[in-house]
């Protein structure tokens, strides 16, 4: 089976030695993210996130289905992560690696089960029709930090997405096309974001946003998901080494600051994008008409 | 309008290209030559693996069909015998489709085929995989006779197809650098004469005239003034200039 | 250096006028990477790049700087030991490729009793002995004529940095490569540098700071395609930070 090539012993020793001297390979501080970039596509609901050399594209699409019989009032929301050999020859389609399983599990916990998206708002007619929302996560380039980047991409794409409006008349529902009525944004309840900490030297050193080389050397990782109000959605720890509970508390404090920064960044990008789309204020005029 | 391209823009893959044309945007990546799994190993030639990944949803049989078409076309231009017992892995990630793509009434996998072929070729060039020749490809649509104009549409945009309303048949042609037909996929009802006309038109748009400047001016439908081979040469020229810029830097 | 570059695409026929004119009639034409000979006398390119010629050596090749490293006999490379089997080490030249063999006895002074012990994932500076397409590449750490290592062997300590294949060639080409940054840095701080044709650069500067500074400086010269003046400026900036 193709596998990610191991890091050489020289690199491993050097990275550890450097961390001992408080130096990271790319000169970053221990609690600094790599430069983050976010570009929205021409369509609604496409977010292209670059975190250093890592690149992830999330895409939201919508369909109409019958809701699950046990959840009549809820729409369907699904996050799909499938790695392709594009990001690394070690990834094979149809044969998930551990990293892929962990990524999809974390996204599931962080976004779906934390109720970031109000699935009830996706219901059209209880028990008969609802929207099925789907978030596809494509890993384009892999240099570590996939979880953080994917989470940013999915949350940004969800906030950017507009679903078509519906007209319900009794038992009949009609989906209105974009031309008939301005599509409406999703109802997002809160914005969870992930911050991964990689720990070294028996939990003495914590790194935020490790790159691939650092990920290969680390003893373990802790992924903290929280929103900008400081509400922790999930904490996951992978890797065997023990860690101090106080260190975990410290992690959540650092994560809160990072999440606040990132939320602000996403918000700014969303506003920039809205301004670009709203060329000449034509959209505002149209939506004002449609509001009635 | 010539396609927009960006070569070698992914850092991890051995070769990559981002290609945008007529609302189609595709990212292509090539890894190779790399180690081939035992079950796929060929003793005398390289194994080629093509993965087409849709923008939304998991791969469907339509994507598998596209993979087979791209695979068969590329196999005839990659010098597989010079790198035996290796794997050349090509991944084509569709990033976005034109908005009107679903309402054109044209088989969507035919409409996207030329773009997939161009993306994979550019990624192969970026990965410096040995090739026997290049390829260029174009879509030709023949509108039904009762609509105007009834002349075939060369490399139409999705919008053109919607406006033409009823399209009788669509054809995709791919030519090698030495003007040989590499691939033809047609869909719809058409006569042999119509096919011939479409084929000639495609050849003119794809291949450079050997003798002269070879730019057919009258044929541009959407302002496509450059011929596809010239475009490809321009892209490679830029790549070489970028790689050699250290020679002239101060 | 060529005054105008000839850009070629795969499948382009190279006309006889573009091929080097040999000084001696007897000297056979040598075709380098990216060129293919189809008998009787058609020469076509197989990759996209610029056509380069050397009249003295009567050689022609295609210059390109993208894609994966392909081994060629005589290349100096930094290989990673994958496993040790029976009589030889299996080494990786680039990630995810088939392994190359490095016999246990092809180290300086190695005998059956004193064969070197290299754990998996250690680095070795080696030379490619042969690289046929139908067999695994063979590596060695000794010069066959003298039996000496000539600087080849296991690399201890230090750090490796990824550079482009073109940069690796430039570093090995000496003065022609136009890399001035190392000279300037070397005037002030001491470090050891090893260049692998496979795009791997090994730097050992004694301390973490020096090693990182040197490695990153070379990477920056590579990525930004810095000219000589800019390289000197960069080197001075790096020296000031140390």
From TrEMBL, chain A:
<dbReference type="GO" id="GO:0034473">
    <property type="term" value="P:U1 snRNA 3'-end processing"/>
</dbReference>
<keyword id="KW-0689">Ribosomal protein</keyword>
<dbReference type="GO" id="GO:0034476">
    <property type="term" value="P:U5 snRNA 3'-end processing"/>
</dbReference>
<dbReference type="GO" id="GO:0005840">
    <property type="term" value="C:ribosome"/>
</dbReference>
<dbReference type="InterPro" id="IPR033100">
    <property type="entry name" value="Rrp45"/>
</dbReference>
<dbReference type="GO" id="GO:0071038">
    <property type="term" value="P:TRAMP-dependent tRNA surveillance pathway"/>
</dbReference>
<dbReference type="InterPro" id="IPR050590">
    <property type="entry name" value="Exosome_comp_Rrp42_subfam"/>
</dbReference>
<keyword id="KW-0687">Ribonucleoprotein</keyword>
<dbReference type="InterPro" id="IPR027408">
    <property type="entry name" value="PNPase/RNase_PH_dom_sf"/>
</dbReference>
<keyword id="KW-0963">Cytoplasm</keyword>
<dbReference type="InterPro" id="IPR001247">
    <property type="entry name" value="ExoRNase_PH_dom1"/>
</dbReference>
<dbReference type="GO" id="GO:0035925">
    <property type="term" value="F:mRNA 3'-UTR AU-rich region binding"/>
</dbReference>
<dbReference type="GO" id="GO:0071028">
    <property type="term" value="P:nuclear mRNA surveillance"/>
</dbReference>
<comment type="similarity">
    <text>Belongs to the RNase PH family.</text>
</comment>
<dbReference type="InterPro" id="IPR036345">
    <property type="entry name" value="ExoRNase_PH_dom2_sf"/>
</dbReference>
TrEMBL record, chain B:
<dbReference type="GO" id="GO:0071028">
    <property type="term" value="P:nuclear mRNA surveillance"/>
</dbReference>
<dbReference type="GO" id="GO:0016075">
    <property type="term" value="P:rRNA catabolic process"/>
</dbReference>
<keyword id="KW-0539">Nucleus</keyword>
<dbReference type="InterPro" id="IPR020568">
    <property type="entry name" value="Ribosomal_Su5_D2-typ_SF"/>
</dbReference>
<dbReference type="GO" id="GO:0005730">
    <property type="term" value="C:nucleolus"/>
</dbReference>
<feature type="domain" description="Exoribonuclease phosphorolytic">
    <location>
        <begin position="6"/>
        <end position="130"/>
    </location>
</feature>
<dbReference type="GO" id="GO:0071051">
    <property type="term" value="P:poly(A)-dependent snoRNA 3'-end processing"/>
</dbReference>
<dbReference type="GO" id="GO:0006364">
    <property type="term" value="P:rRNA processing"/>
</dbReference>
<dbReference type="InterPro" id="IPR050080">
    <property type="entry name" value="RNase_PH"/>
</dbReference>
<dbReference type="InterPro" id="IPR027408">
    <property type="entry name" value="PNPase/RNase_PH_dom_sf"/>
</dbReference>
<dbReference type="GO" id="GO:0003723">
    <property type="term" value="F:RNA binding"/>
</dbReference>
<dbReference type="InterPro" id="IPR001247">
    <property type="entry name" value="ExoRNase_PH_dom1"/>
</dbReference>
<protein>
    <recommendedName>
        <fullName>Exoribonuclease phosphorolytic domain-containing protein</fullName>
    </recommendedName>
</protein>
<comment type="similarity">
    <text>Belongs to the RNase PH family.</text>
</comment>
<dbReference type="Pfam" id="PF01138">
    <property type="entry name" value="RNase_PH"/>
</dbReference>
From TrEMBL, chain C:
<dbReference type="GO" id="GO:0071035">
    <property type="term" value="P:nuclear polyadenylation-dependent rRNA catabolic process"/>
</dbReference>
<dbReference type="Pfam" id="PF21262">
    <property type="entry name" value="RRP40_S1"/>
</dbReference>
<dbReference type="GO" id="GO:0000176">
    <property type="term" value="C:nuclear exosome (RNase complex)"/>
</dbReference>
<keyword id="KW-0271">Exosome</keyword>
<dbReference type="Pfam" id="PF15985">
    <property type="entry name" value="KH_6"/>
</dbReference>
<dbReference type="GO" id="GO:0071034">
    <property type="term" value="P:CUT catabolic process"/>
</dbReference>
<dbReference type="InterPro" id="IPR041054">
    <property type="entry name" value="Rrp40_N_euk"/>
</dbReference>
<feature type="domain" description="K Homology">
    <location>
        <begin position="158"/>
        <end position="208"/>
    </location>
</feature>
<dbReference type="GO" id="GO:0034475">
    <property type="term" value="P:U4 snRNA 3'-end processing"/>
</dbReference>
<dbReference type="Pfam" id="PF18311">
    <property type="entry name" value="Rrp40_N"/>
</dbReference>
<feature type="region of interest" description="Disordered">
    <location>
        <begin position="1"/>
        <end position="39"/>
    </location>
</feature>
<dbReference type="GO" id="GO:0003723">
    <property type="term" value="F:RNA binding"/>
</dbReference>
<keyword id="KW-0694">RNA-binding</keyword>
<dbReference type="GO" id="GO:0071051">
    <property type="term" value="P:poly(A)-dependent snoRNA 3'-end processing"/>
</dbReference>
<dbReference type="InterPro" id="IPR004088">
    <property type="entry name" value="KH_dom_type_1"/>
</dbReference>
């Amino acid at each position: 089976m193709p596998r990610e090539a191991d890091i050489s012993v020289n690199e491993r020793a050097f990275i550890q030695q450097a961390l001992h001297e408080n130096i990271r390979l790319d000169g970053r501080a221990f609690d600094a993210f790599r430069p983050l970039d976010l570009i929205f596509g021409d369509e609604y609901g496409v977010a292209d996130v670059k975190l250093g050399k890592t690149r992830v594209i999330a895409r939201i699409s919508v369909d109409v289905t019958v809701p699950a019989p046990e959840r009549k009032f809820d729409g369907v929301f699904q996050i799909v992560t499938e790695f392709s050999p594009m990001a690394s020859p070690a990834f094979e389609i149809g044969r998930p690696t551990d990293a892929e399983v962990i990524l999809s599990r974390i996204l599931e916990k962080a976004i779906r089960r934390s109720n970031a998206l109000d699935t009830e708002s996706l219901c059209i007619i209880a028990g008969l029709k609802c929207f099925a929302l789907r978030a596809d996560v494509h890993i384009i380039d892999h240099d570590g930090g996939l979880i953080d980047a994917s989470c940013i991409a999915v949350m940004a794409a969800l906030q950017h997405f507009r679903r078509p409006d519906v007209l319900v008349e009794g038992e009949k529902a009609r989906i209105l096309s974009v031309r008939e009525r301005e599509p409406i944004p999703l109802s997002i309840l809160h914005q969870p974001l992930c911050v991964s900490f990689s720990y070294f030297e028996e939990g003495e050193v914590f790194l935020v946003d490790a790159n691939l080389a650092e990920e290969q050397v680390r003893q373990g990782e802790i992924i903290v998901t929280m929103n900008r109000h400081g509400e922790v959605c999930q904490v996951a720890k992978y890797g065997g080494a023990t860690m101090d509970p106080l260190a975990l508390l410290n992690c959540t404090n650092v994560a809160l600051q990072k999440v606040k920064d990132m939320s602000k960044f996403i918000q700014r990008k969303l506003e920039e994008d809205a301004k670009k789309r709203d060329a000449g204020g034509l959209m505002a005029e149209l939506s004002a008409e449609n509001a009635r | 309008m010539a396609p927009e391209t960006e070569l070698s823009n992914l850092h991890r893959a051995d070769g990559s290209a981002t290609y945008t044309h007529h609302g189609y945007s595709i990212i292509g990546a090539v890894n190779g030559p790399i180690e081939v799994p035992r079950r796929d190993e060929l003793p005398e030639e390289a194994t080629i693996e093509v993965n087409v990944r849709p923008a939304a949803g998991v791969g469907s049989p339509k994507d598998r069909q596209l993979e087979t078409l791209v695979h068969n076309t590329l196999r005839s231009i990659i010098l597989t015998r010079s790198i035996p017992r290796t794997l050349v892995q090509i991944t084509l990630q569709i990033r976005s489709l034109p908005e009107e793509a679903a309402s054109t009434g044209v088989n969507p996998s035919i409409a996207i085929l030329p773009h997939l072929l161009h993306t994979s070729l550019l990624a192969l060039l970026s990965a410096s995989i040995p090739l026997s020749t290049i390829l260029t490809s174009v879509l030709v649509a023949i509108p039904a006779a009762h609509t105007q104009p009834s002349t075939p549409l060369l490399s139409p945009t999705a919008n053109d197809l919607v406006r033409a309303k009823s399209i009788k048949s669509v054809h995709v042609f791919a030519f090698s650098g030495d003007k040989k037909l590499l691939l033809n996929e047609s869909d719809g009802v058409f006569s042999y004469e119509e096919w011939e006309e479409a084929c000639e038109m495609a050849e003119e748009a794809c291949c450079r005239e050997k003798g002269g400047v070879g730019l057919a001016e009258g044929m541009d439908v959407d302002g496509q003034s450059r011929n596809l081979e010239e475009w490809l040469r321009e892209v490679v020229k830029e790549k070489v200039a970028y790689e050699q810029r250290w020679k002239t830097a101060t | 250096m060529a005054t105008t570059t000839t850009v070629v695409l795969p499948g382009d026929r190279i006309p006889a006028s573009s091929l080097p004119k040999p000084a001696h009639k007897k000297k056979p034409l040598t075709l380098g990477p990216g060129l293919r000979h189809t008998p009787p006398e058609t020469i076509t390119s197989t990759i996209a790049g610029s056509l380069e010629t050397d009249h003295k050596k009567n050689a022609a090749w295609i210059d390109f700087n993208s894609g994966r490293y392909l081994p060629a006999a005589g290349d100096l490379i930094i290989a990673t030991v994958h496993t040790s089997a029976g009589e030889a080490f299996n080494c990786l030249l680039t990630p995810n490729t088939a392994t190359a063999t490095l016999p246990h006895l092809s180290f300086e002074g190695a005998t059956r009793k004193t064969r070197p012990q290299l754990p998996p994932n250690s680095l070795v500076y080696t030379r490619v002995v042969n690289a046929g397409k139908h067999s695994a590449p063979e590596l060695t750490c000794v010069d066959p004529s003298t039996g000496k290592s000539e600087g080849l062997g296991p690399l201890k300590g230090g750090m490796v940095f990824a550079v482009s294949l073109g940069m690796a060639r430039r570093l090995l080409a000496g003065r022609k490569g136009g890399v001035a940054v190392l000279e300037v840095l070397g005037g002030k701080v001491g470090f050891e540098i090893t260049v692998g044709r496979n795009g791997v650069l090994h730097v050992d500067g004694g301390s973490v700071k020096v090693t990182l500074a040197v490695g990153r400086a070379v990477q920056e010269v590579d990525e930004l395609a810095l000219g000589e003046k800019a390289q000197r400026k960069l080197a001075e900036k790096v020296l000031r930070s140390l």
